[in-house]
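Hi team,

As requested, here is the filled-out complex form for the inosinic acid run. I kept the field names the same as last time so the parser does not choke. Let me know if anything looks off before we queue the next batch.

— J.
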Amino acid sequence: MFDTDLHCLVVVGAQWGDEGKGKLVDVISERADLVVRYQGGANAGHTVVIGDSQFILRLIPSGILHPTTTCVLGNGVVIDPDAFFGELDGLAERGVPVTGRVLVSDRAHLVLPYHKLLDAAAERSQNIGTTRRGIGPAYEDKYGRRGLRVGFLSDLPRMERRLADRVRLANEQLALLGAPERASVDEHVTLIRRIAPRLLPMVVDTGAHLHHAIRAGQRVLLEGAQGSLLDVDHGTYPFVTSSNTTAGGAAVGAGIGPTAIDGVLGVVKAYTTRVGNGPLPTLAPAPVEEELRRLGHEFGAVTGRPRRCGWFDALVVRYAARVNGLTALAVTKLDVLDSFETIPVGAAYDLDGARLEEMPSDLSALERVTPVLETLEGWRTSTSTARSLADLPRPARSYLERLEVLADTPIRYVSVGTRRDQIIEVA
Ligand code: IMP
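And here is what came back:
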């Protein structure tokens, strides 16, 4: 996608996450100098398949699998240090060079064991269906102005005093939530002393680094995690994650100005899935849902939970196109639909006798809508070897054309399998 006019690209999920961003970022980052995560943490699970090997990346940008890219964890990310180093070591053991290739923002916040205890305790009453990776409580600390930034590690005695204070607060909160667990100051101090010497050499002012890289004409890919409908402002609140997953969050979370961004690619599955709780209007009837889950291997990459599966929902994607300012779409997993005789697509919603063309912000309305389904013709032949649009059967091309019209965004990529080469780039 990179060309003379496009140096800085954001890739976002345009549904509820798990759209296949990992594969797209892997493919596109072949031509990128820097790949940047700007929000979220180890709640993400980006799956990339190379040959017979499968990599699941949680915190480290998918660009790590191309040896010449530099990977950046921006200020908007929340970093669980053990998850981070576990992932780095796992990659190194599998022969991926990692040394000197990962930069971490001094402004990023840490996710610590007490955040995970709070996440689990809050889940007992809130029932959001979180990944229990401590994401919500870490962002609560950040916005409550009591968070622990990576940069604080350079003054350990001060960091330890802050830490003791936060652990005491967390224990008070755990007691209020009726949770039996308590966090230990000693455990946290030991953790911080262990990780500081390893993390600090990677720490830089990543915003400044990116600014200079963009000025120098380097190609930068900003890799979104989760999906637009999980954005804390624009998603199906409160069944959302605690960060801005949409393209606006990319500028804030990477520390660059919005004018530095040249394009936004929205990744969508050819159907829809959702893991965690909250409405899914185009949910398929049970036997069909089961079939989609089986064919698409729809189980959470982080938690292993079965994903709910349904048909493509045009309102979701049109909404995502609007709030992200999408300039192009990448449609993934088209091959999962290869065996269906007909394929329904959600084109509008009915609510209390009225037709809705736009996503309602009121969750109770979204829970009551009935999708208006259009039935499109299936192709019942394998698409997995197609490498150009002309290789696709006519009904598959018609299906994509219809998605393009419904989403009001041009399609730039179509993915037809998990492997790197199973992709169509539309000229
Ligand atoms: P949290 O981000 O762990 O707080 O979870 C909040 C919601 O976001 C839950 O519904 C999770 O299942 C969902 N979620 C978080 N990360 C991902 C992801 O990478 N893919 C899909 N859903 C996610």
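Two things worth flagging: The chain has a mean pLDDT of 96. The pocket of inosinic acid is lined by residues 17-18, 43-45, 128-131, 133, 135-136, 225-226, 230, 239, 241-242, 275-276 (CB under 6 Å).

Thanks,
J.
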